[in-house]
Amino acid sequence: MARASTSQVHGIFEKIAGYYDRMNFLMTLGRHGRWCREVADRVAPPRGGKLLDLATGTGVIALEAARRYPAVSVTGLDFSQEMLRRARSKPGADAVRWQHANATCLPFADASFDAITEGYLLRNVEDLDRVLREQHRVLKPGGRLVILETCPPSGPVKPLMAWGIRVLVPAVGQLVACDRSSYAYLESSTRHFHSPQSLAEVLRRTGFQDIGWHKKFFGTNVIMWAAKAP
Ligand SMILES: C[S@@+](CC[C@H](N)C(=O)[O-])C[C@H]1O[C@@H](n2cnc3c(N)ncnc32)[C@H](O)[C@@H]1O
């Protein structure tokens, strides 16, 4: 399943919520937490400001941001009630406002947030431009966006990494969660998603500037950043 509809994506995340954190730890060999800390570090919202973590899932980035910036109001948004239920039950969850909504149509006024973070949202959406335009709309002028996303493998390690993602991810899904098909979707959505160069183009045409990125873990993941013009 290279492309999935919004309702199929929603169904997958409702289904995998119970073992999402464990699978993420295994698939990134424990690096996911470190990348989320880097996302929170890079976004650096102003004291007294407002930060929105989209596709918050089990809340790893939102909780890290709330811990790191106690003087910032943090909202974690997701369209999966099951993922949000896990987020709400974690230590420190009271410091975050949890919101059930779709990232395609954000329930916020224009220029509401100083900063936006998101982990693994963009490859799951049907209309990437619309989702990024929504983020641009709710950011204040000068606001910052930091994205954690997977990358299709490239460069000399491409055959090895492509094999690893294609074979190992669904196999670990089967072993840990008895759920090969959900993880086969996650694998194919990674393989067919934009490279950082191509995602930077989409960010530019949806209004963002000052775009940069760091690849992680043999180029299979990337942290990208961008800003709305002041
Ligand atoms: C792979 S999880 C990432 C969770 C978290 N950001 C992390 O890094 O661990 C992707 C999340 O995106 C959410 N999601 C996907 N499409 C969405 C949409 N259109 N609106 C809101 N949430 C969405 C899913 O429900 C899921 O919780």
UniProtKB/TrEMBL annotation:
One Pfam family from the record: Ubie_methyltran
A molecular function GO annotation: methyltransferase activity
Class of enzymatic activity (EC top level): transferase
This enzyme's EC code(s): 2.1.1.163
Recorded metabolic or biological pathway in which this protein acts: Quinol/quinone metabolism; menaquinone biosynthesis; menaquinol from 1,4-dihydroxy-2-naphthoate: step 2/2
Family classification: Belongs to the class I-like SAM-binding methyltransferase superfamily. MenG/UbiE family.
Protein name: Demethylmenaquinone methyltransferase
Organism: Streptacidiphilus monticola
Taxonomic lineage of the native organism: Bacteria, Bacillati, Actinomycetota, Actinomycetes, Kitasatosporales
